[in-house]
Write a structure and sequence with these properties.
By secondary structure, the chain is an alpha+beta fold. Helices cover about 25% and strands about 40% of the residues. The longest helix has 20 residues. The protein is globular.
Amino acid sequence: MKEWKRIAYLPLALLIFFTISTSAYGDLYWESEMVSGGVPAGFPSNLPKQMIDQFNKTETIKHYLTPYAYRTDTNDSIMIIKHDTMTMYHINVKDKTYTKINMTTFLDNESGKGMAEEMKVTPTNETKKIVGYMCKKYNMTMMGSNNEFWISKDVKGYKEYTAFGKKMEKMFEKNPMLRKLGMAGKWDGFPVQTVMKVMGITSTTTLKTIEGKALSKDLFEIPKGYKMLDLKVPHH
């Protein structure tokens, strides 16, 4: 059940990834704060406090980006995406297990095409300052959810991270879902804040710190002693 919950969030996670990665060349590290609240769709509203606390929390997200890979760390999991092979690894730190997904294969089916057709990104004229950056709002609808992306050109160094975009565009050409997601990379700026509403949970993620620095390749490898789980993804 846990694995399928992660799959449900995959399209939105990928959208953030492509927004960043298509504007990036070089090594980049940033931290953001994610505040989540709500009750998952279909769950009763009178859940025990211990369960509600799992969905209503604040945590720091750490991001590592290089021209060849991307990694995010949360309190209990790690996600690694290797650009050249379009392979995603989801690592469960507590259980010392991980799953492996070929993103091209996963999204190159009827479900992926359906998601691509439903996805729509709309720029607005709305602007506001968020944590010191002047941002422009983009609305994104997908799979019945309405989401906000607040993009800024004021984030230091974002213009230096543009060369990687052309490489990623070639990788998206034959896959409708990836091609549609890749459009996010054309947004002129860096995502300072995102507001996502998925399955009854609202998550607001805000940039806190960002810096360019050399990152070790070891960050993008599976830790020793971790066991791979077989994740079967159905095709419709």
